[in-house]
């Protein structure tokens, strides 16, 4: 069966469209409800995860006292910014590109993702400039001083990602773990929001494409095409949005044992235009494959499903500060990849605004922090494995919230769903 996007848009305008979040629809399928093609017009899907392929383009004036022709080097909060492509020509304006995975020169576990959140929050950032003539200038700016601040995705929102286990006999430092990966397949990490991931709900990209309006970190933006390393089996997307409208709580930085990474959030409205989309939106976690990768060799060793990570688990970490024993060294605080745990006097505090619900704290101190993160169940070299997940690099809790907000925005008309300009070949 097929229908035109225009038909769906007309129903939305008449307030007659049926719009579900992907979670709502999957819950109906799990409950055994009979859902037909004509019963759903749009599904809102979302993900919040570490997405390395992220950069920002910033343009703003700097106060230097005297005009310079070209900047040869710039840092923002000691994070490298790449200059160009245009020379300054004595305008006192910088055009810069900052990578989401760039690392600060003087702050451990601070990088581009942290910088992007600081900028969106309106925090002042320190800009240091070296000119071609060797002169040095410093200034402090905020997003209000930036007429242009645009975030770009180069490869985001993979249909499904992977879980990781270290099968070697030695610890491994990797971006796929918040701390050093323990050896001998004793722990697992994972990424991807499973059944609610946007591209999982439209893997052949029949409903969304070039020009489709989305929410990127809460700001309206647009899909530009397929991302780098995209393939028919694992399609991903490029998109962009204005940072001035972004929501800080949907973005940020995440510390790994290989350095800081960048967190980005997507919410996408998928029009159900044909059977391929309808079949995909009905696919629940149990049917969404999740490769198990060896974190040391970076090769696939097994397959499982996203049910291992997201079915009957805790999406949010429970916090019981009254059970804190005031240990000499607080491991959850020391190792939290978001710096969300700290002490205020003799009381431990969990900052829910920055918490990613990765769950690492619950594996380090199960008295104060509690969360069932699930475990990976698969066969490896003739042996049945059951490896506990100790870190999640996707935040399904906030992804669900974003999908619900997008659903409501479509219904009340504050988000205008549009048809694509051009199809994308996955």
From TrEMBL:
Residues 315-346 form the 4Fe-4S ferredoxin-type domain. It comes from the Archaea. Gene3D superfamilies: 3.30.70.20. InterPro entries: 4Fe4S_Fe-S-bd, HcyBio, Methan_mark_16. This is 4Fe-4S ferredoxin. It comes from Methanohalophilus halophilus.
């Amino acid at each position: 069966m097929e229908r035109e996007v225009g038909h769906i848009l007309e129903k939305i305008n008449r307030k007659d469209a049926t719009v579900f979040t992907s979670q709502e629809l999957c819950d109906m399928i799990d409950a055994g409800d009979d859902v037909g093609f004509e019963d759903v017009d749009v599904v809102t899907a979302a993900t919040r995860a570490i997405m390395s392929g992220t950069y920002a383009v910033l343009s703003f004036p700097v106060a230097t006292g005297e005009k310079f022709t070209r900047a040869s080097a710039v840092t923002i909060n000691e994070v490298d910014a790449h200059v160009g492509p245009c020379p300054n020509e004595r305008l006192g304006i910088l055009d810069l590109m900052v990578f989401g995975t760039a690392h600060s020169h003087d702050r451990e576990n601070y990088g581009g993702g942290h910088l992007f959140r600081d900028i969106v929050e309106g925090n002042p950032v320190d800009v240091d400039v070296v000119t071609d003539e060797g002169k040095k200038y410093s200034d402090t700016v905020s997003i209000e001083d930036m007429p242009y601040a645009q975030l770009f995705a180069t490869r985001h929102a993979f249909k499904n990602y992977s879980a990781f286990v270290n099968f070697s006999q030695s610890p491994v430092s990797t971006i796929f773990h918040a701390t050093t990966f323990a050896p001998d397949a004793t722990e697992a990490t994972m990424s991807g929001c499973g059944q609610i991931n946007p591209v999982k709900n439209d893997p052949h990209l029949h409903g969304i494409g070039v020009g489709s309006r989305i929410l990127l970190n809460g700001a309206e933006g647009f899909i530009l095409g397929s991302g780098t390393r995209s393939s028919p089996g694992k399609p991903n997307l490029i998109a962009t949005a204005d940072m001035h409208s972004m929501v800080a709580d949907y973005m940020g930085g995440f510390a790994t044992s290989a350095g800081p990474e960048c967190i980005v959030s997507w919410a996408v409205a998928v029009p159900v235009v044909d059977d391929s989309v309808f079949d995909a939106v009905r696919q629940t976690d149990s049917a969404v494959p999740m490769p198990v990768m060896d974190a040391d060799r970076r090769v696939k060793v097994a397959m499982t499903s996203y049910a291992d990570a997201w079915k009957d688990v805790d999406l949010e970490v429970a916090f019981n500060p009254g059970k804190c024993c005031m240990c000499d060294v607080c491991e959850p605080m020391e190792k939290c990849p978001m710096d969300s745990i700290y002490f205020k006097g003799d009381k431990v505090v969990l900052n829910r605004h920055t918490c990613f619900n990765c769950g690492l704290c619950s594996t380090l101190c199960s008295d104060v922090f509690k969360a069932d993160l699930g475990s990976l169940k698969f066969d490896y070299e003739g042996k049945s494995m059951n490896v506990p997940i100790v870190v999640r690099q996707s935040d399904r809790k906030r992804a669900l919230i974003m999908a619900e907000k997008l659903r409501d925005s479509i219904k009340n008309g504050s988000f205008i769903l549009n048809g694509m300009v051009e199809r994308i070949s996955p």
